[in-house]
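Example record

One chain of 83 residues, shown exactly as stored in the release files.
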Amino acid sequence: MENQNVWIERKTRDYREKCSKCGTPKILEAFNRDKSKFAGRRSECSECSQKYAKKHYEDNREQRKEYQRLYYEVNEKVKMAEW
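Predicted structure tokens for this chain:
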């Protein structure tokens, strides 16, 4: 089975897929792997995925900090109880 996957990867190396976000055709290696997808790759390129993750982090930074602070407070008490 492993040899078959290597053969498929070699055969599709020059295959170009269109990114669902930016619409630019890119080689298959430009897309992150995802076993749950039919082609085994995500529909948006890794560059677009990185841009989205960065923007999402910046937009939700305060909410994330608050969540982490609350999580720390709750789990600090649990850790102290285990000692």
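Notes: The two ends are 49 Å apart (CA to CA).
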